[in-house]
């Protein structure tokens, strides 16, 4: 690990001049110039051993002490602290995001939304195209993306070739990485594997892609849905010829952008009992009924509720990029978080609004909604 204090030109132009004492550790005998990756972003090292990336441009205040490490062929930079003497105002940086007031924070989310109340915002949009959500603005992402198992969504094809599905996964994980604050977290509910359209190691593949995009791995929670009716076939009954094994569980992969520890103190609302129970990474609760909710693949409120209380503070900004029937926003409402949902289908956005009203978006909040 090499540390250094960022100088004005480095911040303004977007490079890091690796100190000569750390050059061998970070660059070794690599032939320069060369291309590389820095915190998941494209970067290059010039012939003087300076790492250039658009990621670095005006990201940290002048005078920030950073630590630079290299793992495999990728570089990681983590800010340690900003010098008191820094006199440069940087727009759009994660540090600034912490300084701006609640109202200003919310103003950024109000434009172009399909529904808003005091603390809940719904966008009828494509997560790959949405422009309203600012980079470095989200504390926690809780989501369950489409699984590519031929679920009949209204206007999304859930039965595409697996390589295309993984490409889509890469794109949205990349977008969400950009939306996330440096200490932002991701709770990703996905299946362990799938057998529809051929056996695939979904959890392993998506986790690997998330890491390639820049997300850091923290842990995995097993969600035991206690639903044995998921079994659809035995394969070869009572024969070793070609039996099928299926685990009736899903997982919640917990990842973070750059720093696991929260940069600022906040207020938690988790009880002692919940903390002890939920930090045991096998969660036992039932799935949600499609018919009851009116959506083909809802998760139960218990899932985002646990993720939110365990991994975010009261008042934090939580995003669900695949909102569906609005379950994550119901959990936000119950736990006093600011909830932002993106859903490509208008009918599901309307369903989410209906559910939110039923779950106690108060009259005052409704009156203030658009
Ligand atoms: C597994 S469901 C999410 C269900 C949700 N957790 C709930 O409890 O209702 C995935 C959702 O993603 C939506 N979707 C698919 N592609 C999308 C995209 N590019 N942008 C935003 N939403 C998308 C689908 O319409 C579907 O409602």
Q: Would you kindly provide a written description of the structure presented here, covering whatever features stand out?
A:
This protein is α/β, with parallel strands linked by helices. The protein folds into 2 domains: 81 residues, At1g16640 B3 domain (Beta Barrel); 268 residues, Rossmann fold, CATH 3.40.50.150. Strand 3 and strand 4 form a beta hairpin. It is globular. The C terminus is likely disordered.
Give the arrangement of secondary structure elements.
Elements: E1 2-5, H1 8-13, E2 15-17, H2 20-27, E3 34-38, E4 41-45, E5 50-52, E6 64-71, E7 74-82, H3 94-99, H4 102-110, E8 115-116, E9 120-124, E10 138-143, H5 162-179, E11 180-191, H6 202-213, E12 216-224, E13 249-256, H7 272-278, E14 282-284, H8 290-293, H9 302-311, E15 317-320, H10 327-335, E16 338-343, H11 346-358, H12 363-367
Parallel strand pairs: 3-7, 9-16, 10-11, 10-15, 12-14, 15-16
Antiparallel strand pairs: 1-6, 2-5, 3-4, 4-5, 6-7, 8-9, 11-13, 12-13
Helix pairs in contact: 5-6, 9-10
Bound molecules: S-adenosylmethionine.
């Amino acid at each position: 690990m090499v540390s250094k204090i960022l100088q004005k030109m480095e911040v303004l132009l977007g490079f890091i001049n690796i100190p000569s004492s750390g050059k061998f550790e970070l660059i070794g005998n690599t032939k320069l110039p060369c291309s590389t990756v820095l915190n998941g972003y494209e970067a290059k090292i010039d012939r003087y051993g300076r790492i250039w990336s658009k990621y670095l441009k005006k990201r940290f205040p002048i005078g920030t002490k950073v630590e630079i490490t290299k793992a495999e062929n990728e570089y990681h930079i983590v800010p340690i602290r900003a010098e008191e003497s820094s006199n440069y105002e940087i727009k759009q940086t994660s540090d600034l995001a912490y300084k701006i007031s609640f109202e200003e924070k919310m103003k950024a989310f109000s434009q172009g939304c399909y529904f808003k109340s005091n603390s809940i915002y719904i966008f009828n949009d494509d997560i790959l195209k949405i422009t309203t959500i600012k980079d470095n603005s989200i504390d926690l992402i809780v989501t369950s993306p489409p699984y590519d198992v031929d679920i009949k969504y209204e206007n999304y094809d859930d039965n595409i070739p697996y390589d295309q599905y993984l490409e889509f996964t890469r794109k949205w994980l990349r977008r969400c990485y950009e939306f996330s604050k440096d200490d932002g977290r991701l709770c990703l509910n996905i299946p362990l594997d799938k057998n529809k359209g051929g056996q695939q190691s979904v959890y392993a593949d998506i986790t690997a892609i998330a890491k390639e995009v820049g997300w850091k791995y923290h842990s995995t929670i097993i969600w035991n849905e206690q639903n044995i009716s998921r079994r659809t076939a035995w394969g070869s009954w009572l024969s070793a010829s070609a039996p099928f094994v299926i685990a009736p569980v899903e997982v919640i992969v917990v990842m973070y952008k750059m720093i696991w520890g929260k940069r600022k103190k906040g207020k938690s609302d988790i009880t002692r009992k919940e903390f002890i129970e939920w930090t045991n990474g096998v969660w036992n609760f039932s799935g949600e009924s499609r018919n009851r909710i009116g959506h083909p693949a809802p998760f139960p409120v218990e899932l985002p509720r646990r993720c939110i209380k365990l991994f975010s503070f009261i008042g934090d900004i939580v995003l669900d990029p695949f909102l569906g029937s609005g379950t994550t926003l119901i959990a936000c409402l119950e736990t006093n978080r600011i909830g932002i949902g993106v859903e490509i289908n208008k009918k599901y956005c309307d369903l989410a609004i209906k559910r939110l009203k039923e779950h106690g978006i108060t009259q005052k909040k409704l009156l203030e909604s658009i």
